[in-house]
Amino acid sequence: xxxxxxxxxxxxxxxxxxxxxxxxxxxxxxxxxxxxxxxxxxxxxxxxxxxxxxxxxxxxxxxxxxxxxxxxxxxxxxxxxxxxxxxxxxxxxxxxxxxxxxxxxxxxxxxxxxxxxxxxxxxxxxxxxxxxxxxxxxxxxxxxxxxxxxxxxxxxxxxxxxxxxxxxxxxxxxxxxxxxxxxxxxxxxxxxxxxxxxxxxxxxxxxxxxxxxxxxxxxxxxxxxxxxxxxxxxxx
Length: 236
Prior knowledge:
By secondary structure, the chain is α/β, with parallel strands linked by helices. About 50% of the residues lie in helices and about 20% in strands. The protein is built from eight helices and seven strands, in the order H-H-E-H-E-H-E-E-H-E-H-H-H-E-E. It has a seven-stranded mixed beta sheet, sandwiched between helices. Helix 4 (about 80-95) links the parallel strand 2 and strand 3.
């Protein structure tokens, strides 16, 4: 089936166990990475209109809402209805329903108008885009002229020894753990493969530039296991 349809089905199937397995996948360090990205998203006293792309079960949208200036609005967008359903429950439980809304939608054909948002974020989802160039251009389109984007993504370490351990864990061990917990080993074979296929930092920065972004910056976390890309919108 087309990648987009397959991704939607995959995440619908693993949605009930996704949060627990996501922390296993990142050895629970993802919480630290998210905190660093949130600081980049919310460093202002003015209310913000924020779009969180590929929001999954809403972890990043909730983290942003807790640190965003008073009066801010966070919209989460994800292709998986199963993930959105769980995310809405989490938002309500956190008492953030007036600040955060989660909607099902296509990240490569965003349903919002040009220049709608002050910030756009993607946490561990951009590698799942069927057409990454199109997705980046859509995120550029919905940002305001002075808007900013923050992208967190898992990556392959450059250090040879770290890469060996990384591949051992992600390619050999993780699918067994994920398959046992979720009952869907195929999903946890796809997830490591999607990380291995994610463009190298220089190539991804070039793709962001091709989409129109300026002042593109890149930071590596935890020996390169995670990378944060930030950029500003400039008028074409």
